[in-house]
Amino acid sequence: MVESDIKLWKKYKRTKSKALREEIIRKYLYLVKYVAGRVAIGLPPNVEFNDLVSYGILGLLDAIEKYDVTQGNKFETYGVSRIRGAIMDELRKLDWAPRLLRKRAREIERKMRELEDRLGRSATEEELARSLKMSVEDLNGIYSELNSTTFLSLDEVWQNDDGNKPISRLQTVEDSLITDQFSYVHQGEVKELLAQAIDQLPEKEKLVIVLYYYENLTLREIGDVLNVSESRVCQIHTKVVLRLRSMLMKKTGEITLEA
């Protein structure tokens, strides 16, 4: 963080000046629009982008009040997790995801784990569909529906304002955002497990992860690279999210048993 920013934050924390607060809000408002844009990908059309921005602003205001400049961390790093958390909290309150769809997602994750244990590798779509007693077409249809409800992305990459190496959401997210599944695993272990899980993915799925989360390509652009439709990329992305969740839950469960 540059010296002028440090002075700005220290002065605001000392004086609680409304003018300085407004200046800080304007300075970091771009973070809200960025996070809202990333979250908006794949959401149903009834969710307005402006609503996401409104939710994100609440997160920004909360981050501004709770940020401690003396810790030496960049506000951008802290603010992104707070903004995203606020948006996700509000989306969950809407509760528009059908219970049946959530139940199907849990069943797919469970079957993925069972097949991986039995086969010693990632299951193919045909094998997974057969174990679920449905066709591949029906399974892909569920992926398409789930794409609108799978809020937990695997990673969120954004570029530092100083042009340095991109920062991953897994490097910035607060423990409270991952408590549900990983409260007993240190954040560094989660990142390591995630990297191992990604390495185990089939090549096409791994490529989708790299292009989307690290090259920042849109789903349509990824479709052009893979020579498939945008909707097919959405299906693959959702399948990868579920598969990696399944892998992580299995791995973290093993760690718990060994502890």
Q: β content, as a range?
A: under 5%
CATH topology of the largest domain: Butyryl-CoA Dehydrogenase, subunit A, domain 3
Distance between the termini: 39 Å
Name of the CATH first level of the largest domain = Mainly Alpha
Summed up, the helix count is 13
Q: How many strands, what sense, and barrel or not for the largest sheet?
A: 2 strands, antiparallel
Label the structural class: mainly alpha
Q: How many beta-strand segments?
A: 2
Strand order of the largest sheet: 1-2
Low-confidence stretches: 150-186, 254-259
Radius of gyration based on Cα positions: 20 Å
Instruction: Count the domains.
Output: 2
The second-level CATH architecture of the largest domain is Up-down Bundle
User: Level of helix content?
Assistant: over 70%
Mean pLDDT across the residues is 76
Please state the overall shape, judged from the principal axes of the Cα atoms.
elongated
What does this 3D model show about the protein?
The protein is mostly helical and 259 residues long. The protein has two domains: 3-94, Rna Polymerase Sigma Factor, Chain: A (Orthogonal Bundle); 99-258, Up-down Bundle (Butyryl-CoA Dehydrogenase, subunit A, domain 3), CATH 1.20.140. Helices cover 71% and strands 2% of the residues. The chain contains 13 helices and two strands. It has helices spanning 3-15, 18-40, 49-66, 75-94, 99-119, 125-131, 136-146, 169-172, 179-182, 187-199, 203-214, 219-226, 230-258, and strands spanning 157-158, 167-168. A two-stranded antiparallel sheet has the order 1-2. The longest helix is centred in the C-terminal third of the chain and has 29 residues, at 230-258. Mean pLDDT is 76; it is low at 150-186 and 254-259.
